[in-house]
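## retry 2 of 3
previous attempt timed out at serialization; input unchanged, resubmitting
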Amino acid sequence: MLLVAAAFATPVLAGPTTDGALMSPEAQEIDVQEHLGEHIDPKLRFQDPEGNDVTIGQYFDDERPVLLTLNYFRCPVLCNVQLNQLTESLHELDWTAGDDNFRIVTVSIDPREKPALAADKRANHLEALERGQQVEWDFLTGDAMNIRLLAAQVGVGYAYDGEQDQYAHPPVVMFVSPKGKIARYLYGLTFEPQDVKFALMDAAEGKVGSTADKLIFSCFHYDATLGRYGKDAMAMMRYGGIATVLVVGGFLAWFWRRERHPVEASPAELEA
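## retry succeeded, writing output
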């Protein structure tokens, strides 16, 4: 399980974490090199859970961002944990994949896996998600060349351990624009629903999210060193200052109005 352990140990960093001479060639492949702003080749070919031939470009509809993960469906440890935690996060999210906000694509990195296995995996996660079978979360399989090309384009390195018959890979999810441009990476085995929503809004370039969502989003910034979103102190101070001005201004307006138009006492109050 050495390679799996290495995947847990270096999920966030882009680039080798130690001297390459001290790492096996396989371990050095388990990495993420962020390719922000680059486009995924829409012609890469895969199969959907029904066995239909599809291209990755079919999932970029010019309207909705795509949450993309690279996993494999027989994985006994890392993939199960990551996908289960992602499902829990999506369960708490007030958006549903497929309802004009976003869609999800999970691609197997194991070319031996077939659509039937992908269909079972999809069914299990949709059942746990409890949003119905119409959720747009596709689990794709493909040949080794197309899988490697996709992984290279998003900058995700992985390695196969023949002794364990397992793949080691970093736990990361990518967020891709409606036109197929890589916009954001989130790292780790757990994902806050707020981080997922903000990353989707980033990828959508303002095309998804309510006015309230966008107001809240403006108070946060993406911390590349942590691979997550944090509060933007300057934005919080700006909005706090605006709120203070509005409250004080409202009170002063009420006070001046009261001074200019004093309430006249009633006859009963004058007699008293």
